[in-house]
Each structure stands twice: as structure tokens, then as C-alpha cells.
Write a structure and sequence with these properties.
The structure is a homodimer. Chain A is of the alpha/beta class. Chain A has ten helices and twelve strands. Helices cover 33% and strands 14% of the residues of chain A.
């Protein structure tokens, strides 16, 4: 817990709920008659409502991106390193909005929420949501907050996909978009890892085809496995090697089949177990499907530059050298399509040992690039303070 | 099934069993009072017993490396592409021995075998076996077959570790060693993937701490998951992309959470399911532990070149460009230590799109390198025909 709030923190923040009783038709064809979105804001909206920045979260993220909920919090929000006074997403200049996506499990309507039409939790009946659905629901939140356009939409990983989709879907409402450690579509290997995670969850006998709530069980073992395999893909080979190497928990090999012997095993168990206690299994399935499905080029015979045609924003694309989940060549694919579509784009491949997780870690060159881009965004704002 | 046996096949082969009633003390300190090894041989041992070649198998391999067991077989042995008349391991020149390792589930004594002391299957009580234990048991098989030394010991992946260990453990008995797509020790990432596989098996409620035999259950779902995650690491990102890309099984997205939608998902399910029907879960645990534990440098404060000091053989080391399980730099680590220890070593980094599985696939340059090396091995044999 913070003894004092650090000066570059947004401080104590309070999540808010936006309730929507307007039907939202989803890409799958189904309709949600009402839903709520949990969100937080940092900084102040300026008089002409031109300094708003939207933060889009990744697979296991949520609305709590910066600051603390109370002085008892052991850790700040998940992107606190990048959001705050003087940080790249500078809350002295920007009004920052961060939400939990539809289908999530941190307060927004999702599989664990009560379906008002049945009185029971949606569970597996919650409709499949896509990146496009998220962007549309985020636009409804922008309307609610009276934000006509975003100075920037920013996201890493799955969040980067949302930033990209915003730029295509609402070209007039996005002035800048930052697509960090992301990809214009998943590779077969990406989908394969997601499918292992899903299969781990659905194979857990406590899953009950997603109706674990009704059975008062929980597929925690499956979710733990899903997170373990996911976690390996977030780290680089090098960073795992540096962090754990072949270090043993005891001094010598135990020669037991079921013993935890290497530090890296113990670490993975810890990560998996902690996650499985705090995340909804059906939401995990939804989020991985949203990743799999995202492919803006699909409607254009695979031509990504054509898909990007409507966009009017300036882009920042950032990749990290040791990210093998969404490696630099996936970002380059995106940048090349942007160039072909004659869009304005800055691209940085940042040297980092941290794998995919690098987008969460404030290394020097990454922060320099991010500061530079957001500085230019701030200068465009007519009445920036 | 073959309508006719191809001319470069070793033809119909019959597995044999070697029964050992001599106690074998294992690296873990436990003792096996008796055990059997299932093996096959191809080609003929020459008069001075100087043309024998040992094939060591990988994680899920077995003794059936080449030829057919009957005309009904749909496929030949697992390394048929490399073993046979005129092939790199030329059965016109060499007497080839291939066995199922101790702890395996293809006929050699392992967890599924009956423990003569209890009358029940060993199950999880089967002792943990290591690469060193395998090499020692293989030496007992060599004694039984009256093979004083191997013209070559050859293996890919975990098999390469055995070839390396042979060269250190029995320097006088190994004239050449081929270490293909292997590593002198697993990385943290390698161990992490193995641990996900083990956790998938042990989390399956049908596992019963390894006593699924007594419960007449089988942890097939866990084993399926283990194989799925393993399989991803055997293929390259590129080969998965080429084979499956983002191809859908149906024409359109189904927007179902539990549907199999992408071809790559269906392929992984098939591979996982097929494997889970044919492999013993306790053996899978044993084999992955043997991989984790292998580290000949451990006894020499991490100095691999010192570990290699006793070796007297000539080495061939082969790596494959897209193998990300045991990438070329792990082979280079080994080659550098061999050079430092002043050993004779040939090294080839072979350009291949097939990932780790490349060691099983007879691509041109790989076969050229393999033919070249084995040709030199044949020339060293005093009375080679």
C-alpha cells in the first residue's frame, strides 16, 4: 500500500457505472437490451471537450488503469506507469477514460452478471462480443460523457486492436490512435495457444458447459492452466531465463514426479492460481474469442490497407523486439498497410527484453517514444492547459 | 498400408524383448531389480561387431523407428525417412538398434508395467528415470547384444541428449555421436511448457495421483491438453501459418464460444485426442522430467566444456532455423563447449520451415548433411561391406 500517494500518481480514484437502457445489436446478431459499463476517469475534461483520451484494455485488463482505490491498495492500476501527471498520458493535459469492456468481469455487464430477462446469471448464454462491439459500446460511453471525439485512443495488445477498430469505425471521432504490441489479426499459432487455454477451461469438470454458477462450482484448475500457458507467451525466452534460469527451489533435485522443483514452475503456479481466483472463466473464453475473430481485413478480401481507408487519425505503432506473441513483423504488416493507405503513421520497434509484457513496463526508449507522440497530441488540442 | 514394401525400406520387422534380471541402480537412488527393454534391429551386425548404430528416441518415441510390423500398417516407423537401404542411416552398412526407453509405454518396463514385487502396476511409484539412467540401461542392452562399441549413437531432441550423455558416460564405446535439434539443457521457457503439460495431466480428476489404473479411469483430457501445448512448440509459427492460417472450418464465423471454428483448432484437437489414446500419462510425466533434469554441466559448476572432457567421439550437431523449442543458439552453445573442450565437431544449421519437427522430415540439405556424416562413419568401420 502507498504510505503517501506519489506526486506523479492520479491519486485516489473512484470507479463509476454508466447504465445503458438502449438496445445494442452485436456483431453476432444478438441484442443486449440493457447493459452497464464500469469506468474510471483521470484528469479533467477541458471546456471544449477536446482533450479526452480513451484507454482500451487487454485480455485480462479492466477499468482500473491508474491510481489507487484506497490507501490500503497494495498496487496502483495496471497502466499506472504510463498515466498520471507528467507521464506519457499526462493527466495535467488529458482527460483520461478507462473502462471495463462489455463481457468483462470487473463490473461491466458480462457472463457473471444477472440477465434481467431471466433473473439468473448469463453464464454461457452471454453473447459473443467482438472488438467492433466493444468500440460501439465505448462510443455509447463517449456520448454519455459528452465527448465528441477522442484526442487519442490508446491500447496495448487486444487494446491496440480496439484503437485500430476505432480509427476505422469512427474516423471523425479519433484524432490519434496508438496501437502498441498488437497485430492486425492473430496468427495460427496465436489461435492455437488461445484454444489450449479454452480447452483447459472447458475440460475442467467444474466448468459444466459454462453453468458453473448454477452448480456452485468453479473451473479454477482449468483457468489456472489457461493462465499458465498464456503467461509463458507474455514473457520472452530471455526474460524467463534471466528471472529463473534453471534455479531450483531446494538445493538438490527431488526426483519426485509431482514435486515443484524449479523456480519457474513455482512462479507459474502462483500466477495461475492468483488469476483463477480473480477472473471469470466465461469472460476468459469471450476475450480469447474476440482476439481470434479480430480481422478488419476480412471484409476486404484480406486487404488490410483497404480496411484502413476510412481512417483519418495519426497513428503510433509500437512493437517490442522480444515480443514473440505479437512480434515486430506483425506491427510492420500493419504499418505497411497504413503507408499503402496513405495514412500518417509513426512506428517504433523498441528494444526490450520483456517480451509481450513490455507494453506494461516503462522502459526508457518506450517512454521517450510515448512521451513524444502524446506531446504532439497535446499540441493539437486547441485549448490545452 | 504399403501395397508393396518400398525398395528403400527395411521391410517387415519384429520387435524383440530383452529381459534383465540384474539390479539397476538409478540416479534417484532407487533400484529396479528387473526390467525389460523392447527393441528392434535393422541391417546386420558385421563379423567384428563394429557397425552398430544406436537410435535414441524423443519424448513420445519408441523402438519402432523404421519399417513395418505388418502389411496392414498404415505408416512405417517414426524415423523411416532416415533409416533404410541407401538412407542416411544406411542398413546396407550399419546394424541399427532402436529401443523403447525405460519408463516408456511401448513395451519396455514403465509405470504401466506390473511391479513383480507387488503384483500391481507401478503407476506413480515407478522411479523417476533420467537420461543417464537410459544410457546405462542402453549399455546393458549393448552388452546383451554383444556390441562392444557403437559406430554412432544418434538422436533428435531428447534423443540428442542421450547421444550426448553416451559420449560422456562411455567414451570408449561411442565412436560418433549425432545430436540433432537438441540442447545441452532446457531453458526456463522449456521447463515452463513442460510444467503446463504436467499440470494439465495432474489436474485431471481422472489422474488420481497417478493411480488411474486402480481407479479404472484415465486422464485423457489432461493428456490431450498436454499434447496440444507440446504440439504447438514442435511446429514453427511459419509452418502453422502456412498449413492453417486463419482458415475457418465453416464458411462464416459461428459466434459460438464452444464451437471449433478455425482449422488449427480442429487439427490440435485431433492430435491431442489421438495421442491421449495411445500414451501413458505417467510416462509423459517421466519423460518431461527427464528433459527438465538433463544438464551434464550441473556436476561441473555449469561448465559444459568440462562436462564434455571425457568424450572421445566425433560429433555432428544439427539445428534448424525455425526450431523455437531448441533454437540454433542452444546448439551453438553446445558446439562452442565442444570446441572449447577440443572435441571434433561438425555443425550444420539447416534452413527449414518445419520448426522442431524438422528433425523428422527428410529435407534436402538435412539429408545431405546426415548422409555426409554417416558416410564418414561408415568409412571408419574396418570391415564395412
Amino acid at each position: 500500500m502507498p504510505e503517501v500517494i506519489p506526486p506523479d500518481s492520479v491519486g485516489i480514484v473512484t470507479p463509476q457505472v454508466a447504465q445503458f437502457d438502449i438496445p445494442l445489436t452485436l456483431e453476432c446478431g444478438k441484442q443486449l437490451n440493457s447493459f452497464q459499463l464500469m469506468y474510471e476517469t483521470y484528469g479533467e475534461l477541458n471546456a471544449d471537450r477536446s482533450n479526452a483520451v480513451l484507454i482500451c484494455h487487454a485480455l485480462s485488463g479492466h477499468h482500473h488503469a491508474a491510481g489507487y482505490h484506497s490507501m490500503e491498495d497494495s498496487k496502483p492500476g495496471w497502466w499506472d506507469s504510463c498515466i498520471g501527471p507528467g507521464k506519457p498520458i499526462d493527466t495535467n493535459k488529458f482527460f483520461v477514460v478507462s473502462l471495463n469492456n462489455l463481457g468483462g468481469c470487473a463490473g461491466s455487464t458480462g457472463p457473471a452478471s444477472i440477465n434481467p430477462e431471466t433473473g439468473n446469471a448469463y453464464g454461457p448464454d452471454f453473447p459473443v462480443v467482438t472488438v467492433q462491439d466493444w468500440v460501439r459500446s465505448q462510443a455509447m460511453l463517449a456520448d454519455r460523457l459528452n465527448i465528441p471525439h477522442w484526442a487519442a485512443v490508446i491500447g496495448g495488445s487486444l487494446g491496440g486492436m480496439q484503437a485500430l477498430q476505432w480509427s476505422i469505425e469512427y474516423p471523425e471521432r479519433v484524432h490519434n490512435a496508438a496501437v502498441i504490441a498488437s497485430t492486425p489479426r492473430l496468427s495460427a499459432q496465436n489461435i492455437a495457444f488461445n484454444e489450449v487455454a479454452r480447452k483447459a477451461i472447458t475440460s475442467d469438470p467444474n466448468f459444466h458447459e459454462g453453468r458453473y454458477g448454477e452448480h456452485t462450482t468453479y473451473p479454477d484448475k482449468g483457468l489456472m492452466l489457461a493462465r499458465m500457458v498464456g503467461h509463458i507467451t507474455y514473457l520472452s525466452n530471455a526474460s524467463m531465463g534471466e528471472k529463473f534460469g534453471r534455479d531450483l527451489r531446494a538445493q538438490t533435485l527431488k526426483f519426485g514426479l509431482l514435486d515443484v522443483q524449479f523456480e519457474v514452475e513455482s512462479y507459474l503456479h502462483y500466477q495461475g492460481e492468483r488469476f483463477s481466483k480473480n477472473f471469470d472463466a466465461n469472460t476468459y473464453l469471450l476475450m480469447t474469442r474476440a482476439l481470434d475473430y479480430f480481422d478488419p481485413a476480412r471484409a476486404h478480401e484480406g486487404d488490410l490497407s483497404k480496411a484502413l481507408e476510412p481512417a483519418k487519425c495519426k497513428y503510433l505503432v509500437v512493437s517490442f523486439t522480444t515480443d514473440w506473441r505479437f512480434p515486430p513483423d506483425r506491427s510492420e504488416e500493419l504499418v505497411n498497410a497504413m503507408v499503402e493507405a496513405k495514412k500518417s503513421v509513426s512506428y517504433a520497434e523498441v528494444d526490450s527484453p520483456h517480451g509481450h509484457d513490455a507494453f506494461l513496463i516503462p522502459t526508457q526508449r518506450y517512454m521517450d517514444v510515448f512521451h513524444g507522440f502524446m506531446g504532439r497530441v497535446a499540441k493539437e488540442i486547441p485549448h490545452a492547459r
